[in-house]
Amino acid sequence: MPPSIRPLDDHAPRLLTVAVTSRALFDLEESHSLFEREGVQAYAEYQHRLEDEVLEPGVAYPVVRKLLALNRQLPDQVPKVEVILLSRNSADTGLRIFNSIQHHGLDIVRAVFTAGEPTWPYVAPFGTDLFLSANPESVRRSLQHGVAAATILPASRAAAAHRDQLRIAFDGDAVIFGDESERISREQGVEAFGLHEHQRAHEPLSGGPFRGFLSALHDLQAAFPAGEDAPIRTALVTARSAPAHERVIRTLREWDVRLDEALFLGGRAKGPFLAAFGADIFFDDSAHNIDSARLHVAAGHVPHGVANPD
Question: What is the pTM assigned to this prediction?
């Protein structure tokens, strides 16, 4: 094991814990294709041969890098951000991944290598707030076990150079909030949805799969001074519009959670607005919205709620 991979105090408090798979963190698509075509032995030989060749960043890399960079700005006594690596490689073939972690200067110190077995069972024991994976089945199983998770997908065109500030955008219904209101929209139409939300404007929405992650992110934001120079900025980007906006605002107030920006788009395509916000990643339950987002930014599909039947 590389000397920089060191043990941590199991009881050390964490402001935020993110688990990421090796295929999401690094570009392993070529070797993954080889594995699917020729099997385990060919894959192992390939990784051994290229053991000292550094892997290029994958779609989750910019978010991971910015999250870990926050630790350099936090006071010593403040709990830190931790990123956990989960991989279906064996420890032997995973040496190239550890070498790449060192090369890129990523402070990732915990890892699980399952030698082909699913990684999702290890997400919850780490106390994970967010799981990013390229494997939709792992994401679905993690969501079923109460962990915020998304299948991370790259932008279809190269994004412009981003600022150091981490920018995360969320859809509302079935992501931050439950999907009860979205069910009414799909089953009874937009007018019935608007009336339902107007009548229940003072009744908080239920929490969705990303409520816990949003709260943890809010606590992390609170460790830094507010303002335009804050290292994290968040946005709600929702198809809702007036009068359905009020219930959202009151729910976030009830939860005591801050979102820096709120975009009520009334059904407009989300992609251009996410580009204007400069999102590093956007989370949505709708495949249609993900397709729009991916034209501009990296996106995380959250296979939850009425838009994603089993």
Answer: 0.91
Residues with a catalytic annotation lie at: 171
Same domain assignment for residues 219 and 104:
no
Cα separation, 171 vs 273, in Å, equals 12
Contact 69, 164 (CB under 8 A): yes
Residue pair 210/148 in contact (Cβ under 8 Å)? The answer is: yes
End-to-end C-alpha distance for the chain, whole angstroms: 41
Task: Name residue 237's beta-bridge partners.
Answer: 263
Residues 6+ apart with CB under 8 A from 167: 232, 233, 234, 235, 277, 278, 279, 280
Asked if the structure places residue 161 within a domain, the reply is no
Pair of tokens at residue 280: 């590093």
Q: Do strands 14-21 and 80-87 pair parallel, antiparallel, or not at all (unpaired)? A: parallel
| Full residue range of the structural domain in which residue 100 is found | 14-151
Give the model confidence (pLDDT) of 81-130 as tens digits: 999 999 988 888 889 899 999 999 999 999 999 988 999 999 999 999 99
